[in-house]
């Protein structure tokens, strides 16, 4: 029975190990080259899904300063939302608009090199219009008193719209005339939403149904803003040449490939079979990090590439700590199985301590930093969290599978001379 159980355990371990290798290999291939299945489904490569930052693609970077001494965060957020709509209305995609400092807003427009047109577009006054099905203007922004996101009696997210006296009669006539038809709301000729008239509204108070709270917030902010709620003054404007990225990106990729290759070789030479398991886990780490970048829509910058390469080293560092602890246990005469468990638990506190310290540093950089510093911090935090998973979970699982298969039967496979075993 024991022999049969051991054979079954070994067989399952071999199957699991092969399956892990296949999954990692398939993911790596798809991430590098992409994959089209039956000319219908296309799995995009990382090159297609990960966006490049302004420093890699080139474009225009503008910093606008909010005029006035007392401007709250809600007002700045409404301004950012409206600016985003204006810039992207020109047909420019992947624009980044974010709060840059306490009273500044940074606008990065990749792929565009006309600074003047971007500044002029930002400075537009903003035109809010309500139009009937024939595209005739019913109301303007001057007729709107307020717009807030809220919940209706069924706890569904809505936009609560309140009109000024100048708009009540016009809106009452429109809702009576266009019952069960759509009245569209536009900001600078860009559609905000097209709610269907479901009641004759005479008191100037309407509700717009939405599918989510985020949508309700977005619509309410755009309607409430009308024109920009603050005055902006261009503090600085610069054009970033695409040639910078065309030179820096290949050099960064080559440096990263060489660095990662040396790390993989170092682990393999120093730790042999365990080093191979660590290399497999590191390959998975690289794939997982790039998948996270794709999912959250992270924009890769030169600073982000630097942070990624830094976390690769930290991911390996956790494995080194674990392997050294295991070697110490083997030198005491422990069996390989006992050494794996004891070494893992003894290394755990050191691994967590170093990584948690780095996470705290990353959080500080994120909350007080701006621009590329924030990007560096985000990339660093993602890398640390993923590296903890691959080092503490994936590497341990791979080592245990290798032990069950028979790859790690002897202490010599860790580079340790055979010692009398004390299980």
List keywords for this structure.
alpha+beta; Multidrug efflux transporter AcrB transmembrane fold; Alpha-Beta Plaits; 4-stranded antiparallel sheet; 15 strands; 57% helix
Question: What can you see in these coordinates?
Answer:
- It is a single chain.
- The protein is of the alpha+beta class and 423 residues long.
- The chain folds into two domains: 2-47 and 241-414, Multidrug efflux transporter AcrB transmembrane fold, CATH 1.20.1640.10; 59-240, Alpha-Beta Plaits (2-Layer Sandwich).
- The chain contains eleven helices and 15 strands.
- It has helices at residues 2-33, 46-49, 54-57, 73-89, 115-122, 165-177, 213-225, 242-296, 302-331, 336-368, 372-405; strands at 35-37, 41-43, 51-52, 59-66, 96-101, 104-110, 128-131, 137-140, 144-151, 157-163, 184-187, 190-193, 205-209, 232-240, 299-300.
- The strands form five sheets. Strands 5-6-4-14 form a four-stranded antiparallel beta sheet.
- The radius of gyration is 29 Å and the shape is elongated.
The number of domains:
2
Structural class: alpha+beta
CATH class of the largest domain: Mainly Alpha
Q: Nearest-angstrom radius of gyration?
A: 29 Å
CATH second-level architecture of the largest domain:
Up-down Bundle
Head-to-tail CA distance between termini: 23 Å
CATH topology of the largest domain: Multidrug efflux transporter AcrB transmembrane fold
- Assigned CATH superfamily of the largest domain: Multidrug efflux transporter AcrB transmembrane domain
The proportion of residues forming helix, as a percent range, comes to 55-70%
């Amino acid at each position: 029975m024991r022999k049969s159980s051991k054979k079954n355990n070994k067989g399952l371990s071999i199957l699991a190990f092969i399956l892990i290798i296949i999954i990692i290999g398939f993911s790596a291939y798809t991430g590098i080259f992409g994959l089209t299945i039956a000319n219908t489904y296309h799995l995009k490569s990382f090159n297609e899904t990960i966006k490049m930052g302004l420093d890699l693609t080139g474009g225009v970077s503008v910093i606008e300063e909010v005029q006035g001494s007392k401007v709250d965060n809600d007002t700045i957020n409404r301004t950012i939302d409206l600016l985003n709509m204006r810039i992207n209305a020109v047909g420019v995609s992947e624009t980044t608009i974010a709060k840059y400092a306490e009273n500044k807003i940074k606008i990065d427009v990749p792929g565009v090199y006309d600074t003047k047109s971007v500044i002029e577009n930002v400075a537009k006054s903003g035109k809010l219009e309500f139009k009937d099905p024939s595209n005739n203007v019913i109301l303007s922004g001057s007729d709107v008193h307020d717009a807030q996101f809220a919940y209706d009696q069924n706890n569904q997210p809505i936009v609560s719209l309140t009109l000024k006296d100048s708009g009540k009669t016009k809106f009452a006539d429109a809702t009576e005339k266009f019952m069960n038809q759509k009245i569209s709301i536009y900001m600078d000729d860009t559609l905000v939403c097209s709610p269907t008239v479901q009641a004759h509204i005479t008191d100037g108070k309407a509700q717009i149904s939405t599918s989510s709270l985020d949508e309700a917030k977005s619509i309410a902010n755009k309607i409430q803003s009308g024109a920009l709620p603050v005055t902006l003054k261009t503090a600085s404007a610069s054009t970033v040449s695409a040639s910078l990225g065309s030179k820096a990106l290949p050099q960064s990729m080559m440096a990263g490939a060489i660095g990662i290759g040396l790390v993989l070789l170092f682990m393999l030479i120093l730790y042999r079979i365990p080093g191979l398991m660590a290399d497999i886990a590191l390959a998975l780490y690289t794939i997982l990090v790039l998948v996270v970048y794709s999912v959250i829509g992270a924009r890769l910058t030169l600073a982000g590439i630097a942070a990624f390469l830094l976390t690769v080293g930290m991911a390996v560092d956790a494995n080194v700590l674990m392997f050294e602890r295991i070697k110490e246990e083997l030198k005491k005469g422990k069996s390989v199985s006992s050494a794996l468990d004891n070494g893992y638990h003894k290394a755990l506190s050191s691994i967590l301590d170093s990584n948690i310290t780095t996470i705290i540093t990353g959080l500080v950089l994120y909350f007080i930093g701006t621009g590329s510093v924030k990007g560096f911090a985000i990339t660093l935090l993602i890398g640390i969290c993923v590296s903890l998973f691959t080092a503490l979970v994936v590497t341990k699982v791979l080592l245990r599978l290798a032990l069950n298969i028979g790859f790690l039967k002897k202490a010599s496979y860790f580079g340790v001379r055979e010692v009398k075993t004390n299980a």
